[in-house]
Amino acid sequence: MKHRNIPRNECVTYVALTIPRGWFINKNEKRDDKLIMFTNQSEDSERCESIELDKKIQDLIERNASPHAKGVTPEAMPTHRNLCSPKTPGKTVSMAHFVQNTSRMIAAESSTKHEECAESSTRKNLTNSLEQKIKHLEKQRKELLEVNQQWDQQFRSMKELYERKVAELKTKLEAAERLLSTREKERHQSQREVGRQRDWTRDRLQREEKEKERLNEELHELKKENKLLKENNALLNKEKEHYECEIKRLNKVLQDALNIKCSFSEDSLRKSQVEFCHEEMITEMEVLKQQVQIYEEDFKKERSDRERLNQEKEELQQINETSQSQLNRLNSQIKACQMEKEKLEKRLRQMYFSTCNCGLVFHLQDPWVPTGPGAVQKQQEHPVSPQKRKSISRSTH
């Protein structure tokens, strides 16, 4: 920086110029507020610095104005003397003071100019950094807007997707509820039908059991009668043998008597004494004939009784065979009823533990557990055996 020569009698005046700084025009109001805030802070700091510089300059002028100033160097004096040759010693001293003051003021002015240049460069750097920050923030804002738009689109698409899923699930739920209601109706209807069929089968089994007991009793009675008839037959056979033996003996006696009669007829003339014996023999023969007739009647009666007993025995055997066949038929019917009952129970279990296409499992009530006010009494009257429950559980598993 070049220093101009100031005349002797020329008054130097310093004018402090204030330059407005930090006026930036932007589109965004927030950035304007931030810039104004930063510029206001920088202006406040610069004003403080300028006030301090003014105070320092005033202090230097006051020190230089005093007669015993300490800042005068011997090198500066010849230069001022060369510039302005004083005519009188008093004038030289005042001129030296004036030159010294002016040089100091020029140095202070140059320092202030340097400081102002540095401040302007710092302000430019600050404005550049702020503009870069603003650009970066604008870029971030645009990116955030793009991300927000993407998130908005994704949120709307996900919302539509979930609304569709909720609608589908509602329709599935309504279908499942309708299916459940129909299954409940079918279950109640099937339960009523199965209950009626179970009651019918139970009544049928009870009737068949009663019929079986009656037939068993009849069979037992027939067996007793058969045993008694066998015993009577054995007794009659013994009596028959006894009568046959007796008939043989009487026939032998009769034959002997006839032989004796023939011998008496031959010797009648010879032995008249034997007449009395002959009469006795005749009476005995008549008695024997009557006995033989009685024995024959008894034999015929025994034969007819034996034939009747044999006929009754055959009839009893036929009755026994028919009752045995009826018993076998009833046993086969009972087995068929039990198999039919097991099939119905399996079908009922399958109906109770069926699954639908949507994956819902319907855990329904056990059909063997009765429901209703009179169910406990029915269960006590007709309890379900644990073997049946085990067979039902095995069939279901």
Automatic annotation (TrEMBL):
Gene: TNIP3
Annotated Pfam families: CC2-LZ
Gene Ontology MF terms: polyubiquitin modification-dependent protein binding
Lineage of the species this protein comes from: Eukaryota, Metazoa, Chordata, Craniata, Vertebrata
Region named Disordered: 372-397
CDD domains for this protein: UBAN
Native species: Saimiri boliviensis boliviensis (Bolivian squirrel monkey)
Basic residues biased stretches: 387-397
Any one of the GO CC terms: cytoplasm
Coiled coil feature spans: 123-347
UniProt protein name: TNFAIP3 interacting protein 3
Superkingdom, taxonomy of origin: Eukaryota
Domain NF-kappa-B essential modulator NEMO CC2-LZ: 238-331
Keyword check for NADP: no
Keywords, in A-Z order: Coiled coil
InterPro entries cross-referenced by the UniProt entry: CC2-LZ_dom
GO biological process assignments: cellular response to lipopolysaccharide; MyD88-independent toll-like receptor signaling pathway; negative regulation of canonical NF-kappaB signal transduction; regulation of transcription by RNA polymerase II; toll-like receptor 4 signaling pathway
